[in-house]
């Protein structure tokens, strides 16, 4: 018993480490593209930002309606391909259009990866898995900027060479998902699969009786397939119409495996046939356990489009704070922080402050996203932090205009902004994981993943307006001083 407990603890640590690495690898290329935006298009950084956000938004918006038809393995492989294609396209592209296409590949990869992995956490260790994933995404911000600084600025490699060096990242992503990440551990998910196996075994027994004349024994073995009734999981899974033509649900493969094993087990009579059936069921179930992480939760297939939309709307207590905090912090980054410098008149000074402000912000994000198991999340906290973030945004906007606190001490508030943003991310998804029913959890996490992207897109508009207002106000003050 103790040995089993040690094995389970080791598997849990391995899975948590794998989710941390997946979070890091999923976001780091996205950050590298943002950090090198000026290298891609010095005169139109906004185009790079748009190409790096818009595809993610479209993926997350549509994900709840098609993700369940595509296995996690296929989605993970697609992410690895898009990651490599993005790096190669931007590095080797000779025109802005080609390079922006590469940035779009990166955005698609980040959106598919984040929505998929957040949904997959529902099959593992609950909120602790979300914390591991969140911590990895937080560290991606630090590593992404550090990658560009180390290779491009310190080693004086060209930006294309810096991107080519990052080609090891998609390899690491594929290895982590397919080899480091173990089987799902969700008890609810395993129970559903066990029920499916029982139902399929009954279906095979029914076919035996009809096609091969297997008689029902005294213990009821060989009894026909029970009437599951309409609307049950079994009736949906065993219905031919429930199978997607492109990506079959596990019940298809399980049924085929059960039939193959049944053929192997047949050939003996009496007791030998019984042992063959036991081996058949055991091997089929064992194979099923190996496959269960490759597909969405069975209940996900049963939701209608209206039910999916209703589920998303019901998540507003969690998604509204996520949208708000991301809107506020990215408006600070793209607006207020870019208008601060010592002295503010020098463009180089503004760039230096902006770089340090973002680094302090990323450190704060990493620390707070890693604290999910230390600070129990709650709805009051989830709503309080975005309000505080909005106050920080107001402070930076006013300070960028009137300079009432204007020194390097402002970096401490940039760090705090990162703490607020990271804490809301991990708290929001942890609360969704805890407060939703087992059969809704995976779809709920996928649906809610769009919240941060909506906040980022809204912030781009707000940030541009804030930057223009602060610069115009400062210009008027300088004109008045020159007249005096």
Structure description:
This protein is mostly helical. The chain is built from 19 helices and no strands. The protein is globular. About 16% of the residues have low confidence.
How are the SSEs placed, and which strands pair?
Blueprint: H1 2-35, H2 37-40, H3 45-66, H4 72-92, H5 96-120, H6 127-154, H7 159-165, H8 168-180, H9 187-212, H10 233-238, H11 250-265, H12 271-291, H13 305-314, H14 316-336, H15 347-369, H16 379-402, H17 410-435, H18 438-448, H19 450-483
Helix pairs in contact: 1-5, 1-6, 1-8, 3-5, 3-19, 4-5, 4-7, 4-8, 5-18, 6-15, 6-17, 9-11, 9-12, 11-12, 14-16, 14-17, 14-19, 15-17, 16-17, 16-19, 17-18
Q: What tags apply to this protein structure?
A:
484 residues; mainly alpha; Growth Hormone, Chain: A; 77% helix; transmembrane; Battenin_disease_Cln3; membrane; MFS_trans_sf
């Amino acid at each position: 018993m103790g040995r089993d407990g040690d094995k389970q603890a080791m598997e849990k640590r391995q899975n948590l480490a794998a989710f941390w690495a997946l979070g890091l690898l999923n976001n780091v290329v996205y950050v590298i593209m943002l950090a090198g935006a000026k290298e891609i298009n010095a005169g139109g950084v906004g185009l790079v930002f748009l190409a790096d956000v818009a595809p993610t938004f479209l993926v997350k918006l549509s994900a709840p309606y098609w993700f369940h038809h595509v296995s996690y393995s296929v989605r993970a492989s697609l992410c690895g391909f898009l990651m490599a294609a993005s790096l190669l396209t931007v590095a080797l592209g000779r025109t802005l259009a080609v390079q922006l296409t590469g940035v779009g590949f990166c955005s698609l990869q980040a959106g598919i990866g984040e929505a998929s992995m957040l949904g997959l956490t529902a099959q593992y260790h609950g909120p602790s898995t979300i914390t591991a994933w969140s911590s990895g995404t937080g560290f991606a911000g630090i590593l992404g900027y550090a990658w560009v600084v180390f290779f491009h600025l310190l080693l004086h490699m060209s930006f294309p060479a810096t991107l080519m060096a990052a080609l090891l990242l998609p390899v690491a992503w594929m290895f982590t998902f397919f080899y480091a990440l173990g089987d799902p551990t969700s008890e609810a998910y395993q129970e559903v699969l066990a029920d499916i196996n029982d139902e399929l075994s009954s279906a095979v027994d029914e076919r035996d009786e009809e096609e091969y004349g297997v008689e029902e024994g005294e213990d009821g073995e060989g009894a026909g397939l029970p009437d599951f009734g309409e609307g049950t999981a079994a009736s949906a899974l065993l219905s031919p119409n429930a199978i997607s033509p492109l990506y079959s649900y596990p019940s298809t493969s399980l049924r085929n495996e059960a039939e193959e094993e049944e053929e192997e087990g047949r050939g003996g009579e009496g007791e030998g046939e019984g042992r063959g059936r036991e081996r058949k069921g055991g091997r089929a179930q064992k194979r099923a356990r190996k496959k269960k992480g490759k597909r969405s939760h069975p209940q996900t297939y049963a939701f209608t489009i209206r039910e999916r939309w209703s589920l998303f709307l019901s998540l507003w207590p969690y998604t509204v704070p996520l949208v708000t905090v991301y809107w506020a912090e990215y408006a600070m980054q793209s607006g207020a922080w870019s208008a601060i410098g010592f002295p503010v008149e020098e463009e180089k000074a503004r760039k230096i402050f902006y770089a340090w402000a973002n680094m302090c912000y990323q450190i704060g994000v990493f620390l707070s996203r890693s604290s999910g198991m230390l600070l129990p999340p709650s709805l009051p906290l989830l709503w309080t932090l975005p309000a505080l973030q909005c106050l920080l945004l107001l402070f930076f906007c006013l300070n960028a205009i009137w300079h009432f606190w204007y020194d390097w001490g402002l970096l401490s508030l940039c760090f705090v902004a990162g703490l607020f943003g990271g804490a809301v991310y991990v708290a929001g998804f942890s609360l969704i994981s805890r407060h939703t029913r087992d059969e809704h959890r995976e779809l709920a996490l996928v649906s809610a993943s769009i919240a941060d992207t909506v906040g980022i897109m809204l912030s781009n508009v707000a940030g541009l307006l804030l930057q223009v207002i602060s610069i115009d106000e400062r210009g008027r003050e300088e004109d008045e001083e020159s007249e005096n």
